[in-house]
Amino acid sequence: MGVFETLSSEQQSLIQKHLELVIDVNQRVNLTRIDSLEEGMILHVEDSLAGLEELNEAPEGPLGDLGSGAGFPGIPLAIASGRETTLIDARKKKMDVVSEIISELGLSSQINTYSGRAELFARTQSKRFVALTVRALSQLPVLLELASPLLVKNGVLLCYKANVTDEELADAQRVQKMVGMKLVKDRAFILDNEYQRRILTFKKVAEATVKLPRQEGMAQKHPLSE
């Protein structure tokens, strides 16, 4: 049984409506490559909810979703957990559409959006979150750098991954001390008996030893792991 089936009927209805609205809007605005409800239930909804286990282990408080796109995993996790949630994405056109979807779901008092880069958000909203999620956005060292200034002490970063190479993991382990983070959980599983998935949880254990955030784009262009 998937996580979706363990939720209340009201939660299930909201999550399914979110997906339906995304699929509908996707015919006019490119939000996702997934264009069917059946595929979306697996690769968006169940995939998003797979991190609920780790999110429930995080401290109480607000959730942030980096590179949120169409609102996955942020919106399903917000509905399932009840946490105040901020969706962060640099693509304003997508965030404007997602804001309309949130309003239609009646969740504007719980979920808000930010159109801009994570580094810019961190300049005015440092230590804003107890938990951050990120799915299919970038390499682990980049994610650790972007997340660190946004997290409170003992806050966690949940990295949704399909595959993680030994090199990527080694790079992350080199960078984690510099940014005050530490790998505390690494869970691999099979989604829908077909898709390999992995959720890596990093905890904010100390202040970074480098000045963060750096200028926008530096994490990607010149990773700390270099």
Write the layout of secondary structure elements.
Elements: H1 9-25, H2 37-49, H3 52-56, E1 63-66, H4 74-81, E2 85-89, H5 92-105, E3 111-115, H6 118-124, E4 129-135, H7 140-147, E5 151-161, H8 166-176, E6 181-191, E7 195-204, H9 218-221
Parallel strand pairs: 1-2, 1-4, 2-3, 4-5
Antiparallel strand pairs: 5-7, 6-7
Strand content: 15-25%
What would you say the CATH architecture is? 3-Layer(aba) Sandwich
- Overall radius of gyration: 17 Å
Q: What is the terminal separation in angstroms?
A: 42 Å
Order of helices and strands: HHHEHEHEHEHEHEEH
Relative helix content? 25-40%
What is the CATH domain class? Answer: Alpha Beta
Separate helix tally: 9
Taken together, the total number of domains comes to 1
Strand segment count: 7
Mean pLDDT value: 95
Question: What key phrases describe this protein's structure?
Answer:
alpha/beta; Rossmann fold; 23% strand
Structure, explained:
The chain is an alpha/beta fold and 226 residues long. The chain has a single domain (3-221), classed as Rossmann fold, CATH 3.40.50. Helices cover 38% and strands 23% of the residues. It is built from 9 helices and 7 strands. It has helices at 9-25, 37-49, 52-56, 74-81, 92-105, 118-124, 140-147, 166-176, 218-221, and strands at 63-66, 85-89, 111-115, 129-135, 151-161, 181-191, 195-204. The chain has a 7-stranded mixed beta sheet with strand order 3-2-1-4-5-7-6, sandwiched between helices. α1 crosses α2, α1 runs antiparallel to α4 and α7 packs parallel to α8. The chain is globular and about 45 Å long. The N and C termini lie far apart (42 Å). The mean pLDDT is 95.
